[in-house]
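The instructor's notes for this session suggest beginning with a concrete chain rather than abstract definitions. Hand out the sequence below and ask the class to guess, before any prediction is shown, which regions might be ordered.
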Amino acid sequence: MYLDTEKQQSVFMQPFDLRLATQPDRYKPAVETIPAKKTQLWVQVTCEGDQLDFDEKFLHKNRLEVSLNTGDHGDWHDPILNPQVRGWYHRESTKNKNSTIVGWNPYGSLKYEHKKHKSSDGTPKYEYGRPQRGGNSHSGVDLYAPVGTPIYACVDGKIVYHKFFGKKAGFLTQLRGKYKDKTYTFQYLHLMEIKKDKFRFYNNYKNDPKIKNDGWKNYSDLENPLIDPIVQEKYEVIYNGSELKIDKNTIDINIVTKLNDLFESKGVVEVKKGDIIGYTGSTGNSYQGKKRNHLHFGIKDASGIRISPYELLEQYINLDESGVETSSKQDGETPSSEW
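After discussion, reveal the predicted structure:
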């Protein structure tokens, strides 16, 4: 791989390429840096001719997109790309002593007991294992995810639950499969509920008279922008007949409705690691505004005992305690896959 210093782009050339001999000042050996996160990348290219330049023009001309942020780690696929623990919690939150940013409290999204997690002075980190708001426990990890972020099957397995579960969980998808030779049930909560003629990403959790039709929106008469009745935030919404775009995320309606039909007819659906199995929303008791939108990701072992996703998958999930790195990026519209 070489760097074209005039165009400032990478070019693939063999060492004997004539351009290296005729324009040595223009083409320099390129040094590429690869993120520390382990990723497997497969690229298959069919072409004709003596040479092939992997430059921007070639990629756009042939409609190719190449990214190292695939979410695939071999035996594991991230539930969302580039997963980040949700940092924005409550505006009044001041319990995170590792941050000077008011309202930044990623510990509120973890809430699990683990004595080894301590601050530098040896005391337990704030909020680990403590009650959720209202005194309730929190048995998963909240991953920052704007409305419409695609979620992925993290392992090969079977979807054993895929429907609206209740007022707290909202729309729930459960995937059962093996990770490192152990069987787990992976839970994706608060998802969008998507049907062939309508959708909703929030619902009437507290019997609020401002929320009409339990949050359902028909594709045929969508208003744009869509203003949610809960905190009065705007969403740019566009529907083209098969795809629904909400702000910066695009939802493939056919993927979800096909999965819906299979689950309704068979009661179980086999999926492969990396398959899109839904999109994030705010159904259930999760709606707190754009910046705090998230995927609640939970894990149960084969005995049905809840375990900490962050403890099991710490190497793949970013926890920004201070908020210096990611607080400005968790803007409620830009998915972490674009960071």
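Then share the key points. The chain has four helices and 20 strands. The first strand starts at residue 2 and ends at 4.
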